[in-house]
Design goal:
The chain is mainly α. It is 75% helix and 0% strand. The chain is built from six helices and no strands. The radius of gyration is 15 Å and the shape is elongated.
Length: 123
């Protein structure tokens, strides 16, 4: 089974962390992803520098939850999400619109577990 009881025990932690990221990253969500780093205002650059530290911590937290789940599958998806968030953070200083695919992949990897948890909660 994809989501055994041990992995499912980490679902609340996963959901809570994803929800907290939405709060922590609210300023980032309001930025125009079509503006490359070369055209950022000082305020946009400052916001992106701040969000980089938020995203790095987020990646660490996701990977820790995955590791603590005791499930190789949960851990794999958590690590995938974490690695894509780190790749996006590394791209921030020279951000172009193509880099938005990194954050999208990171989000989607996180949503796979979020939705798997929601499914298993309903069973």
């Amino acid at each position: 089974m994809f989501m055994d009881s041990e992995a499912n025990s980490k679902c609340d932690d996963w959901k809570d962390r994803l929800d907290q990221f939405d709060v922590d990253a609210a300023s980032w969500f309001s930025l125009d992803a079509n503006i490359p780093a070369s055209e950022w205002t000082p305020e946009q650059r400052s916001s992106m520098e701040h969000i980089a530290s938020v995203m790095s911590k987020y990646a660490e937290d996701l990977e820790r939850i995955g590791k603590d789940s005791g499930s190789a599958i949960f851990d794999d998806f958590a690590n995938l999400a974490g690695q894509y968030w780190r790749a996006f953070v590394e791209a921030i200083p020279s951000y172009t619109t193509d880099d938005s695919y990194l954050s999208s992949a990171a989000s989607q990897a996180g949503f796979i577990l979020y939705n798997a948890c929601a499914y298993s909660d309903g069973k």
